């Protein structure tokens, strides 16, 4: 039997993350809603170019097989468009061969409120206000940043990189560093090396992608010709001795990652330039800005490091 949606790995994506909407956004900002609608109607059959999240979404959907019983991944479109202006997006989805059939068009309202209805473990958008509000509501969401990444479409492998604190785990240790400094942070982490950290905002998504990776390895065991398609990396500013608590937390989750970089303050871009993730998640804008030029990147506005951050990229209510 086909996977019920409750058992699927579901990612929700806004049209602003999936496609390049720079021109549409410019029309809306400079000329208003009516001209925007007119523009979308006139360009309804003009296919949108891939956006920052496109390489990720394409490869997630490629995990699915032809058999309905082998389709564990679902991508849902959550859009502030109404169905009329959103028709261009669906025509672009069809043109690019993406198997996306479910959508919620909210006509300017916050689309992320439908995440739980679709069982989504992540919401990707370029709209910082939607992402920030979703995270405040306890929902897993991330704001994609512009990138100069050029996708190699011949690659089948999906590579995802995560920061650790404030992403996979909560930011309780980060709070100690911010308030008491590096020495106290390291002392705390040594004392609690065998204590797993509480889950962070993307812990569910991290667990789901790890589950998909495990499923790929099970396929490999049954069919030696199958090539597992998912690689997971952690790129964290932690270094020894604080690295041990990362391992403890991963063990508590029953998850093994392919690569881990304990960088101790070294620019994350130095290793991610080699790993070449199709998306990198971090809770600090400064880290995202250093990586987004070379890799699709997404900011998760969670915790103490984002209390005063109001960074934004797009405010188009019809993304």
Tell me what you see in this structure.
The chain has 319 residues and is an alpha/beta fold. It folds into 2 domains: 5-145, Rossmann fold; 158-306, Rossmann fold. Helix content is 36%, strand content 16%. It has 12 helices and 10 strands. It has a 10-stranded mixed beta sheet, with helices on both faces. Helix 6 (128-136) links the parallel strand 4 and strand 5. Helix 2 (22-31) runs antiparallel to helix 3 (33-42). The longest helix has 20 residues, at 203-222. It is globular and about 60 Å long. 43% of the residues are buried. The model is unreliable at 310-319 (pLDDT under 50).
Topology:
Blueprint: E1 9-13, H1 15-18, H2 22-31, H3 33-42, H4 54-62, E2 73-79, H5 87-95, E3 102-105, E4 120-125, H6 128-136, E5 141-145, E6 158-162, H7 172-180, H8 182-191, H9 203-222, E7 230-236, H10 243-253, E8 259-262, H11 269-275, E9 279-282, H12 285-291, E10 297-299
Parallel strand pairs: 1-2, 1-4, 2-3, 4-5, 6-7, 6-9, 7-8, 9-10
Antiparallel strand pairs: 5-10
Helix pairs in contact: 2-3, 7-8
Structure summary:
By secondary structure, this protein is α/β, with parallel strands linked by helices. The chain has helices spanning 15-18, 22-31, 33-42, 54-62, 87-95, 128-136, 172-180, 182-191, 203-222, 243-253, 269-275, 285-291, and strands at 9-13, 73-79, 102-105, 120-125, 141-145, 158-162, 230-236, 259-262, 279-282, 297-299. The chain has two domains: 5-145, Rossmann fold, CATH 3.40.50; 158-306, HAD superfamily/HAD-like (Rossmann fold), CATH 3.40.50.1000.
| CATH-defined fold name of the largest domain | Rossmann fold
Task: Please state the overall shape, judged from the principal axes of the Cα atoms.
Answer: globular
Topology order in helix (H) and strand (E) letters: EHHHHEHEEHEEHHHEHEHEHE
The first-to-last residue Cα distance is: 35 Å
Strand count, sense and barrel status of the largest sheet are: 10 strands, mixed
Q: Percentage of helical residues? A: 25-40%
Give the integer mean of the pLDDT values.
Answer: 89
Task: Examine the secondary-structure arrangement and name the CATH architecture of the largest domain.
Answer: 3-Layer(aba) Sandwich
Total number of strands = 10
Question: How much of the sequence is in beta strands?
Answer: 15-25%
Task: Round the Cα radius of gyration to an integer and report it.
Answer: 20 Å
How many H/I helices? Answer: 12
Structural class: alpha/beta
Q: Give the name of the CATH superfamily of the largest domain.
A: HAD superfamily/HAD-like
CATH structural class of the largest domain = Alpha Beta
Strand order of the largest sheet: 3-2-1-4-5-10-9-6-7-8
- Pick out the low-confidence regions: 310-319
């Amino acid at each position: 039997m086909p996977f019920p949606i409750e058992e699927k790995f579901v990612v929700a994506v806004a049209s602003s993350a999936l496609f390049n909407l720079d021109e549409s956004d410019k029309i809306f900002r400079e000329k208003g809603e009516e001209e925007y609608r007119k523009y979308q109607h006139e360009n309804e059959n003009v296919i949108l170019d891939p956006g920052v999240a496109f390489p990720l979404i394409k490869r997630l959907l490629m995990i699915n097989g032809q058999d309905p019983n082998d389709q564990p991944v679902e991508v849902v479109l959550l859009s502030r468009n109404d169905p009329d202006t959103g028709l261009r997006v669906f025509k672009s989805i069809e043109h690019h061969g993406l198997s996306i059939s479910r959508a919620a068009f909210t006509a300017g309202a916050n689309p992320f409120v439908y995440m739980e209805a679709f069982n989504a473990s992540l919401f990707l958008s370029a709209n910082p206000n939607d992402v920030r509000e979703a995270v405040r509501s306890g929902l897993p969401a991330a704001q994609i940043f512009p990138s100069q990444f050029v996708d190699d479409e011949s690659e089948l492998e999906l590579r995802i990189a995560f920061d650790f604190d404030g992403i996979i785990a909560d930011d309780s240790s980060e709070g100690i560093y911010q308030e008491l400094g590096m020495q106290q942070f390291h002392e705390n982490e040594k004392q609690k090396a065998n204590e797993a950290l509480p889950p962070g905002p993307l812990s569910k998504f991290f667990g789901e992608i790890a589950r998909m990776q495990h499923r790929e390895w099970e396929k490999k065991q049954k069919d030696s010709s199958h090539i597992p398609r998912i690689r997971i990396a952690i790129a964290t500013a932690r270094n020894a001795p604080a690295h041990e608590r990362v391992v403890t937390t991963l063990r508590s989750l029953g998850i093994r990652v392919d690569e881990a970089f304990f960088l101790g303050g070294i620019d994350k871009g130095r290793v991610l330039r080699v790993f070449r993730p199709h998306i990198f998640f971090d809770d600090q804008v400064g880290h995202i800005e250093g990586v987004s030029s070379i890799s699709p990147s997404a900011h998760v506005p969670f915790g103490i490091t984002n209390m005063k951050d109001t960074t934004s990229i797009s405010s188009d209510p019809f993304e």
